[in-house]
Amino acid sequence: MNTEAAPLASVAPTAVLRVPVHVAAIVWGVAVWSWRHTRWAAGVAAVGFLVRLVPGGQSAAVGILALGWLVPGLVAVVWARWWPASFERVVSVPFARFSWARWARRRWPHLARECGLSVQRDGRPTRSALVLRAASPRTAPALSKVWVHPRLCSTTARGVTLTLTVRARTGQTVEDLEKAGPALAAAAGARSFRFKALSPSTVEYVLVMADRLAATRNAQVPRDVLVDAVPVGRRQDGTPWVLPLVGRHTLAVGCSGSGKGSIFWGVCGGLAPAVRAGMVRLWGVDLKRGVEVGMGRHLFAQVATTPAQAVDVLTALLRVIDERGHRMAGHARLHTPTPSDPLHVLAIDELAVLTAYTDPDTRKEAGRLLAEVLTQGRALGVVVLACVQDPRKEVIGLRGLFTQTIALRLRSADETRMVLGDGAATAAPAHRISPSTPGTAWVIEEDGTADQVRADFWPDQLVREVAILHPAPVAEDPAPDVEVSPVDAAKSVVAPLIDRAGVHPASSTVPAGSRARKPRAPRKPRQPRPATSPDGSATGGEAA
Ligand SMILES: Nc1ncnc2c1ncn2[C@@H]1O[C@H](COP(=O)(O)OP(=O)(O)OP(=O)(O)O)[C@@H](O)[C@H]1O
Where are the bilayer-spanning segments (predicted)? Predict the structure, then answer.
């Protein structure tokens, strides 16, 4: 008795319990699978039943039922439960794509009618109806009505999107088709949609059928030297979201906690290899006491943490613009960044402190300088990234001077209109972004389509690591004396990172923040060397 009890006792009770739980889950999963594929299951059962009626067909019927019903169900349930990612990639998403496209093709007349895209017109009269009408116009039955729909030219399912290309019916405009977008997306059960006019009569509805932005994704340490554009996250169809920088001024607007930090570090961190290579020079204006920029201080050539220092930074940038303007006049119309002549990127966190909440003199001066940088810097290789919470005109009077805008979570449809323009509240509803998905934003593409994106998250540790790995080189043309924020606290945290990465600032480029060197101590006069006697004992110098 005891010999049998020993092995049982050594098995953990939870492991014993888990087996029936798994069996129950598989049985339940097969039942649900059969319910979802009723037609398939009923068809296999019917075939099995017919084969069973044939003399001697009993074992064949069991085989049909097992192979056609239970085995596919079991495989699907076990695969989906234990290897969900590969099941989604290989089975569920391709199958879903096929069914989305088939659904749209089959249901188009019904969809178009219910979404207000179709009209009812008199049908073409038959010959008998014409004869009856001619004989007695009063008693002849009314002409039958027919529905006229816009034409569904093609349906394409790719990734998690279903694209419907639609041609307007006679009498319909692109605007009429655009209005039906939200109803169409709702009918398809889409998470969101994009609308694109291909011509005055043909449009594309891109229905995003699954949410690829729900999960948080951490940013990676950037490796490539990128200057023109940096990847900052992903789009709703799962493709990378790449933010163009050269020749653009970017405004990121979102209420508190909407994830502006991810945009800020997405740009500054993404440019880090280019900073180290000298192709980009970062200027930081952090008017929230330097808390944000302090994390990655080494990346920045210069940092301002008060409005007065910000004015100095803007003045220095205007000097760069003046000097470049003179140099480029008659030679080039767009600046090309090089290590000796880098792209200057001014990153401002909480622009409102500078433009609305500081003393009137500084505000006026800062507004004037910033307006000059925004209007003249673009082509001369000086671009601005500004983050702000409040998009009202009295806070950012210079809104119109930014060439691209990112709308993170906003507080109202009015704010969405202020940031993205009229009509954006429907196509790009930034005020409906959930507070549980910080970093999510709406952007308007160059072709006018609205797209939802989510920035990758930059944990503090990653920001520090990237700043240490890619410090800004010491500038040969020192910027004006702007007081730098303290970096000692950050240094103590990042010291282990330097060792781990095997990159020490002293061995490569020196971080801008550690430029101030201690004055050297004066040399002491050399003492005469004591003479040494052949037996090794010191003697007086004179004796030698
Ligand atoms: N891309 C992201 N993915 C997931 N979580 C994020 C992302 N970005 C930010 N968060 C989370 O949201 C919180 C707020 O983010 P963040 O500080 O960037 O907001 P903010 O817009 O700068 O707010 P404030 O203006 O008040 O400083 C962060 O602490 C972080 O936990």
Answer: 15-33, 61-80
* pLDDT (0 to 100) of residue 493: 38
Residues whose beta carbon lies within 6 Å of some atom of ligand 1: 216, 254, 256-262, 389, 438-439, 455-457
Q: Could you give the 3-state DSSP secondary structure of residue 115?
A: coil
Residue 142 lies in a domain: yes
**DSSP letters spanning 235-298:** ETTS-EEEEE-TT--EEEE--TTS-HHHHHHHHHHHTHHHHHTTSEEEEEEETTTTHHHHTTGG
Mean pLDDT score, 204-229: 89
pLDDT digits 0-9 by tens, 368-381: 999 999 999 988 99
CA 456 to ligand 1 center in whole angstroms: 10
Total domains present in the chain: 2
Task: Please check whether residues 265 and 347 belong to one and the same domain.
Answer: yes
CATH of the domain at 153: 3.30.980
Return the residue whose CA atom lies nearest to atom 26 of ligand 1: 256
Residue 104 lies in a domain: no
Give the ligand 1 atom nearest the CA of 254: 21
Residue 99 lies in a domain: no
Same-domain status, 168 and 244: no
